[in-house]
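Figure 6 in text form: structure in, sequence out.
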């Protein structure tokens, strides 16, 4: 696990330029490494999830944090006065993922469309639930020991 943590630290340095808001936020929590993971939905949207690597061995099931309306995964950190829940869970050995739905700052790619195409924006909450959540959970479960996972979201 120490080799994985070291490799992830190197990767996080490489990601920093592509994800400046998240990287700046994580500098306040320098004990944690992270990686950006791209996930493609069944309808072609390319989402970015942030995978938090804690300082202890991951022995618990994965947990996906999903944001609500008009915000993204980075905003989860602003709702805690002390250490954020996702970092506390990483400390407890959970495999923590922070998702970003289509159209948010870190999920503005598609296999065939650009953000300048009207069709890129032709979706609703239904598609986010049917495609975004499903794709993120599938990706997250690839690392699950038990095949079980947890979802924490709000709106």
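Output sequence:
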């Amino acid at each position: 696990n120490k080799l994985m943590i070291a490799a992830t630290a190197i990767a996080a340095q490489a990601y920093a330029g592509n994800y400046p808001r998240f990287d700046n936020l994580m500098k306040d929590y320098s004990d944690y490494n992270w990686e950006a993971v791209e996930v493609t939905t069944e309808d072609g949207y390319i989402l970015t999830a942030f995978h938090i690597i804690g300082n202890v061995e991951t022995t618990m099931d994965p947990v996906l944090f999903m944001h609500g309306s008009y915000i993204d995964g980075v905003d989860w950190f602003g709702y805690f006065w002390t250490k954020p829940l996702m970092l506390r869970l990483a400390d407890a050995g959970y495999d923590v993922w922070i998702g970003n739905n289509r159209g948010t700052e870190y999920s503005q790619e598609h296999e065939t469309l650009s953000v300048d195409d009207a069709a890129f924006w032709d979706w609703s909450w239904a598609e986010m639930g049917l495609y975004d959540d499903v794709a993120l959970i599938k990706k997250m479960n690839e690392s699950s020991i038990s095949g079980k996972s947890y979802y924490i979201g709000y709106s």
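Caption detail: Helices lie at 2-15, 20-26, 85-91, 125-141.
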